[in-house]
Write a structure and sequence with these properties.
By secondary structure, the protein is an alpha/beta fold. The chain has helices spanning 13-16, 30-46, 59-63, 75-84, 97-100, 104-115, 137-147, 169-177, 181-188, 204-207, 295-314, and strands spanning 2-4, 18-22, 49-56, 89-94, 118-124, 150-154, 192-199, 213-215, 227-234, 240-248, 261-266, 277-288. The strands form 2 sheets. It has a 6-stranded parallel β-sheet, with helices on both faces. A 6-stranded antiparallel beta barrel has the order 7-8-11-10-9-12. Helix 8 packs antiparallel against helix 9. It is elongated, with a radius of gyration of 22 Å. The model has no long low-confidence stretch (mean pLDDT 92).
Length: 317
């Protein structure tokens, strides 16, 4: 997949033309994938390549940082997922305060026409863009008459487990906030994945016989509710290890922990994980986080958690 990170200085894409779609694409969930497939079909009909236009950082981080959503995927994971969908070209638009004032018409001419030579544009029917979100599917269709492309707004993909709600990044974040990682997976089309380097913690787990890999998750990334989960720990070499993962503030030991930590106990594994970038794929909720009366009660529960995680993951092999 070709990645264009500097559209303001990019030349060459307009000559061949593209069928393209536009959006933040946080999570690259099943709804996003449906729009990508529709765009690929249009690209095939027109005999051109297919492109995604996305933004970094998330526009909300610039426009309303105090209420910006936590991210399901960082830019690099998003690009990996788009490539896996078979996207030919992804154009990453740096989103700045200045860019937020660009009109919809200017964005169409500059990015979609001059950079990519838009021949067809496929977006969700509720898509908005440009300054004050004034641009709509109607705006795209009217511009298409001037610049020679077609534009279509497609229906959003309904959730498989809800009658009235569409698959969306917001719905996935809400499921994660409730610990419903299996529900989130049904909308993502894969397990929600937490990424980060393995760092040195207080090594308390090792001292009680349950060593863990402490995954340092970058600020701003979406974590599930504080709880214990069955998960796959994916090492840099691609090998998957079954794991019981605790996300939380460890109330048995600390009363005022500010941030939730991600601690993965790899079942049946012995070795040094420090420094490697871990990928933790959350499969199923086991139990909510709780405070125990003492170490013996905690260790008994951890043993039960590990057995539960192993049973859940054995069914998925």
């Amino acid at each position: 997949m070709e990645i264009i990170r500097d559209p303001d200085n990019f030349v060459g894409g307009a000559g061949t033309g593209h069928a393209l779609t536009i959006g933040v694409y946080d999570g690259v969930h099943l709804g996003h994938q449906a729009v990508i497939r529709a765009t690929q079909q249009q690209a095939s009909v027109l005999g051109v390549q297919m492109a995604v236009v996305t933004f970094d950082p998330h526009p909300a981080l610039v426009l309303r940082p105090e209420s910006a959503p936590l991210l399901l995927t960082d830019l690099e994971q998003k690009l990996e997922l788009l490539a896996a969908c078979g996207v030919d070209t992804t154009l990453v638009v740096p989103f700045t305060e200045e860019r937020s004032h660009e009109t919809a018409d200017a964005f169409i001419e500059h990015i979609l026409v001059n950079c990519l030579g838009a021949r067809a544009i496929i977006v969700g029917r509720d898509f908005h863009f440009g300054a004050n979100r004034a641009g709509t599917v109607k705006t795209l269709r009217e511009a298409g008459e001037r610049f020679g492309f077609v534009a279509e707004g497609v229906e959003l993909l309904p959730r498989p487990d809800a009658r009235t709600e569409s698959v969306s990044s917001t719905a996935i974040r809400r499921a994660l906030a409730g610990g419903e990682v299996a529900t989130a997976a049904r909308m993502l089309g894969r397990h929600h994945e937490i990424r980060g380097p393995v760092v040195t913690g207080d090594q308390r787990g090792r001292t009680i016989g349950f060593p863990t890999a402490n995954v340092a998750v970058p600020k701003g990334m979406a974590l599930p509710a504080d709880a214990v989960y069955a998960a796959w720990y994916v090492a840099p070499d691609g090998v998957r290890h079954p794991a019981a993962v605790n996300v939380g503030k460890r109330p048995t030991f600390y009363h005022d922990q500010e941030h939730s930590l991600v601690e993965a106990h790899l079942i049946g594994f012995e070795g040094d994980l420090y420094g490697q970038v871990a990928r933790v794929q959350l499969v199923e909720l086991i139990r909510s986080e709780q405070r125990f009366s003492g170490l013996d009660a905690l260790k008994d529960q951890l043993q039960r958690d590990i057995r539960s995680a192993a049973d859940i993951l054995d069914r998925q092999r």
